[in-house]
Amino acid sequence: MQRYFMLKAISEVDEQAIAIDGEIFHHMSRVMRMKVEQQAYLVFDEEVVVKAEVTEILDDHLLMKVVEHIHQSTELPVDVTLFCGLPKGDKLELITQKSTELGAHHIVGFPSKTSIVKWNDKKRLQKQERLEKIAREAAEQSHRSISPDVLLLADINEMYNMLAHYDHVLVAFEEAAKEGEHAQLVQTFKEIQPGEKIAFIFGPEGGITPKEITQFESRGAKVCALGPRILRTETAPFYALSALSYHLELQGQ
Amino acid sequence: MQRYFMLKAISEVDEQAIAIDGEIFHHMSRVMRMKVEQQAYLVFDEEVVVKAEVTEILDDHLLMKVVEHIHQSTELPVDVTLFCGLPKGDKLELITQKSTELGAHHIVGFPSKTSIVKWNDKKRLQKQERLEKIAREAAEQSHRSISPDVLLLADINEMYNMLAHYDHVLVAFEEAAKEGEHAQLVQTFKEIQPGEKIAFIFGPEGGITPKEITQFESRGAKVCALGPRILRTETAPFYALSALSYHLELQGQ
């Protein structure tokens, strides 16, 4: 069943007559060709998910009523931010889509020393908007109750300042994989408590520089390997998020 | 350092004067512009990996000598086959590349009832060849010592017959995720012994039909969920392989 992010609180609507207009109305009436009595999931702020039914279709909007509040959560029990060194081409699109399916809450792109892309402010904000749209579509499709936000930084120093706000910061480092490091990821995962904030840092294709690693470490980051194989910049986040889900959502239960 | 799959046994070469010609010679001399004394990893059959050095460059081939045998393994301790319901577009390319990085050994495409693509034999074999090339490049880049083979089946019945050859068969099923199933993946992973053969089955976009599930189950397959979120057909293998690596390669040590 289709899922829509309402981008407002449920307290802002009348649960017996929710008016749907704009883009969502267009999608429901034109793309999905929904009729009266057909249902969809509506996702409101604060992870409120309801099953709602169409009661009336008008020219430029339609009305739905709530038939059920859904309480099963599809969200990771921790708040996860990915910091990705800006990669080439459309890899950030792939990272955003897949990481949303795999449970990330925030995606931050940062210009690493080895990043090749250069965007002016206008281009950067356009790209950010496009990525947020990709995240919202992936969140709807994967039955998330939170649509991840995307932030593209113009300067790595902004990122250094952000790192203080996390309970755990992990940096995926290729050299750690080559040296056979295999304890840090498990050790950190074992320390994680529900509700904590976790940050993962991934370099672009050219990798993270030793200077950047030092900056991260001085802010509490731990270097880890994601298994013994060398993963591409866009593949590493998939491993980290899948392992986190396996550890917290499947194994803990 | 660059890595090349030699596609022969090390016993077939003289370790003090390995002659390199053809495609690999072209890549070393033209693309990488390697000179005498420069090094690369050469990967031979049976997971034999050596570091070798260029000793002489000639017109149509070059010579290398082995300087070190590498004993650190980058392979999962079990043999993993992915069975993927043939998806649309170039998703099989993405699955092949990423699953190779994440450690798969064999990738098998099968026509599920809901698969939309239809290939004649010629097209199917061309696609298979192309996917094997993508796998080899990803295996080189991710420091594998095995390059996965790719097989595209013309008929799902061939797949049913293959399932008898595995110690464990898991089917990722969207309905299991929706129903909150979360025990089977961990339970199977805990039963796995080194050297065993594992198969994962993933449906195409339209999902696996109940009839297909019954066929899989009658051959010993267990239905499992990959966390509570609904993953796209190309994302599910990333989760399964990452979780397997986390369980066997990081957590067990």
UniProtKB/TrEMBL annotation, chains A, B:
InterPro entries associated with the record: Alpha/beta_knot_MTases, PUA-like_sf, RsmE, RsmE_MTase_dom, RsmE_PUA-like, tRNA_m1G_MTases_N
SUPFAM superfamilies reported in the protein's UniProt record: alpha/beta knot, PUA domain-like
Biological process per Gene Ontology, one example term: rRNA base methylation
Reaction catalyzed: uridine(1498) in 16S rRNA + S-adenosyl-L-methionine = N(3)-methyluridine(1498) in 16S rRNA + S-adenosyl-L-homocysteine + H(+)
Pfam annotation, one family: Methyltrans_RNA
Name of protein: Ribosomal RNA small subunit methyltransferase E
Residue ranges occupied by any Ribosomal RNA small subunit methyltransferase E methyltransferase domain in the UniProt entry: 75-244
One Gene Ontology term of the molecular function aspect: rRNA (uridine-N3-)-methyltransferase activity
GO cellular component: cytoplasm
Enzyme superclass (EC): transferase
